[in-house]
Fold:
Amino acid sequence: MSKVVIVGDLPNSVKDMIVVNMESEMVKKIMKECVLIDHKNISWNSTNRNTWFACINTTTNKGYYFPLVKSKNRENNYDRVKRGMAYFSKQGYGVFKLQ
Structure:
């Protein structure tokens, strides 16, 4: 089973958000079990500290995670997450709500 560990400060600039290599089996599992969403239409009132989003390029198996447990991801009405999702979506990544 894969494990994601968030260490250090989270970057503010989307250009400093470094994607990670994901195991192809993990990408397949996320595609099968999680919801592909339109990042522009998220009901932020339905999220909580346990909510995770992932932007995944299903061709290259690269991704970036946005765990809302990290306070920086909740600041300014989720601004960092919204900007990141918009950036990765424009780059061809799908946005998935993991939990």
In short: Residues 19-97 form one domain. The chain is about 25% helix and 20% strand. The first helix runs from residue 24 to 33. The mean pLDDT is 89.
